[in-house]
């Protein structure tokens, strides 16, 4: 049997730096645990634009459709800010999500004990925090038509469309309820049903799906209140289900509760392929971080944890994923820190590769 | 000359309780400072629905258009959750905002020294915090057409439209730049220009308006990053300008940084009327709080501070507004607390009217 295939798309900025570290972890699993992958690598985002004039070449898109899982670093950067919207680096990422139909974006917000002191929030509010946000990722205002900027009465008008079908809401809801069943059986759905009809449909469909998961305790919350409650008392949440745009904002808000964005992985899952594995892409929640690019300062943990999620959700290797997570807990408990985990911009911690060295040693 | 006119719309839940306290403050200004208002009162939200079958009667709407300022409590509550969207209590509030054309919603997030310990965030991150969010309030996805739930291929589809004209973005931007000029001349504009064309137009128009305010330091931030930065290091911000939906979420997030939603007022301002005063409505940021309604537990400070904003922005009585704010600082420094400011749900502080007693004594 051939090895499972992985397509690595480092993208831009620190995406490239942290992905180099993930390759070291992948190599470790080959050498020490006899777990092998067929790894290929390609361009996405600004890097792809520089070479091909498009943030995602059709050949890359085709490859992504064929592999067992995609690992993506980060896209974008100030060099591309003035590009035309249609070729912005972000379009590459959005095209991958849309064409692979990765509708369920899993964003854990977990606070490692050793880092509880580092959160903006008081320690008692975040110690032991473990939230899973399930964000719908292929629809909503990110993709709805009509969209664009046009002239009306000699004036520019900017338009985007929030559009959700009941099927789109439902399949994401099932992913969220399934997740809740594996965890503490508590799900909170967030929308703005008080001002948006798409939010009313969201609430109705989630309530209908609930009938198939009677054991799960379901609640509904307006997204503005959700943002507030995440800051006020985040431990009240276990699984949160929300739409593409609210999920973007709320998951960044939740991410920050854990102390560092440099710690947080994500998985974007679609329907099962012929081999039974879900279509899948894994990426750190952080961006390309132009301010620290090229300085060896980036924290590779989010990207390494994204690979751990791949082991768990694509390759049925939950034990190996847990092995990585335990190694990371250990190095954090030992006090190993990249700069982002030190709170003081001037303190120098270990380098990007120094962090990986420590993790490999602990594995 | 006749007295300036105030229309009081207590609305639902604790809206009615806190507004009763504001009337005591208004009476105090008449008795002690010889500042008089012609006060009338009417129904809005669920209370109006119960009586008239609509959350805002046309007569009430007409009155709101005539007075010098409207004071609103809060709308909504679980009794109205299953109402048809078109008569939900929130529709009353949104109709007021839209028909009065109150495009600039000012939402201060200020942390009173005496309460810095009470925030979810570490004290050093919030002590002295003083942010002003300017939220566009009459357009965007709250009002865009087409909207609704319809059938397509035998499936329900929920649609809302984010729609901004350059004129709408511009007038709000001018309000935000004017505010920045009165404060520390720093403005951060937030959108999702990386995924939404309406966000690109937003960024472009704000940049164009900047030409008229060369002294202001302008920055742009994606709204997801904005949510994160508000939690990470809120003091980096002074004035924030954002759209209706992002403003809803980000201002609730910012509000929570200050410790209690029971503390935060807001002003919604429109164009100048014939008498030179802006069309204006003032309301606390908190909602109708059904969980504590009728128990005398509500904190009246947000609503009293909303009246102070009315004194400042509608009636050119900035000194009197400052007098109220100073009185509130004093009672907080003296340790007077409603339950929401005590952190422990079981600790009983002063009652709603007890808090007002203390404020009036300090005035
Ligand atoms: C880079 C950007 C297009 C993206 C998004 O808005 O979805 C990012 O913020 C994310 O959350 O993955
Ligand atoms: C009550 C609701 C319609 C309203 C809004 O969404 O604008 C509220 O959340 C607010 O922020 O004033």
TrEMBL record, chains A, B:
Keyword Repressor: no
InterPro entries on file: IsoCit/isopropylmalate_DH_CS, IsoPropMal-DH-like_dom, Isopropylmalate_DH
Catalysed reactions listed for this entry: (2R,3S)-3-isopropylmalate + NAD(+) = 4-methyl-2-oxopentanoate + CO2 + NADH
Entry EC number(s): 1.1.1.85
Site (Important for catalysis): 142, 192
SUPFAM superfamilies: Isocitrate/Isopropylmalate dehydrogenase-like
Cellular location(s): Cytoplasm
Gene Ontology molecular function: 3-isopropylmalate dehydrogenase activity; magnesium ion binding; NAD binding
Residue positions binding NAD(+): 77-90, 287-299
Necessary cofactors: Mg(2+); Mn(2+)
Span of domain Isopropylmalate dehydrogenase-like: 5-359
Cofactor binding annotation: Binds 1 Mg(2+) or Mn(2+) ion per subunit.
GO CC, any one term: cytosol
Pathway(s) where this gene product acts: Amino-acid biosynthesis; L-leucine biosynthesis; L-leucine from 3-methyl-2-oxobutanoate: step 3/4
A biological process term (GO) from this entry: L-leucine biosynthetic process
Its biological purpose: Catalyzes the oxidation of 3-carboxy-2-hydroxy-4-methylpentanoate (3-isopropylmalate) to 3-carboxy-4-methyl-2-oxopentanoate. The product decarboxylates to 4-methyl-2 oxopentanoate.
Family of this protein: Belongs to the isocitrate and isopropylmalate dehydrogenases family. LeuB type 1 subfamily.
Subunit structure: Homodimer.
The name this protein goes by in its record: 3-isopropylmalate dehydrogenase
